[in-house]
Amino acid sequence: MASSALNQQYIVIVDTGCANLSSVKFAVERLGFKASVTDDIEKIKAADKVIFPGVGTAKHAMSNIVSKGLVETLQQLTQPVLGFCLGMQLMGRSSQESSEEQTVQCLNIIPTDIKPLDAKSLRLPHMGWNTITSIKAHPVFDGINVSDYFYFVHSFAAPISEYTVASCTYGTEFSAAIAKDNFIGCQFHPERSSELGSKIIKNFLSLSASQLNFQEVVTL
């Protein structure tokens, strides 16, 4: 896609009512793109690219998503969708916030279940810069290498699975990013991860539909 056409895309940042949306919007605009923050269903459906951020608890976020009538809309999106942090976790089937009795049903877009991060003796939340320990070939990770640093803030994580496209280790190995079809999620915060985070966002905004058929090749 030519640069001028890229910059004319309609980019939507989903307003879930539980994210620092201004920092995400600024990160997009800093790259020369325009983005709208909205929870309007028709505008989300009409977007060329959708960014799905989130902070806080899955219970609160899913309550907001349900009250806004966004569940089915988000599940049925066919354009590229990028989730940040809690936004990534909400793409999973469920999130175990503290006990089995408090398991929150999520969007069930990517079949993985979010669990408390087994940090061993390390402090939680996992907060600060950490390195990627493995990467599968995916266009969103073009130019990103093992041992590159990204900024994390989380106490829950997706386990390593067939949907893992990048991993990280903090006490135990977990999914730093997951992907299925047109949905990609990053556990870290690209908007807070300096130049490499900006590269992730730019790679996403530059995606074409054909690029979503990525190869399952691991970079060591």
Order of helices and strands: HEHEHEHHEHEEEEEEEEEHE
Strand element count = 14
First-residue to last-residue Cα separation: 30 Å
What about the largest sheet?
10 strands, mixed
Determine the number of helices (DSSP H or I, runs of at least 4 residues): 7
In CATH's first tier, which class applies? Answer: Alpha Beta
Describe this structure in words.
This protein has about 220 residues and is of the alpha/beta class. The chain has a single domain (about 5-210), classed as Class I glutamine amidotransferase (GATase) domain (Rossmann fold). Helices cover about 25% and strands about 30% of the residues. It has helices at about 5, 20-30, 40-45, 60-65, 70-75, 85-90, 195-205, and strands at about 10-15, 35-40, 50, 80-85, 95, 105, 115, 125-135, 150-155, 155, 165-170, 170-180, 185, 220. The strands form 2 sheets. Strands 1, 2, 3, 4, 8, 9, 11, 12, 13 and 14 form a 10-stranded mixed beta sheet that branches. It is globular and about 50 Å long. The model is unreliable at about 215-220 (pLDDT under 50).
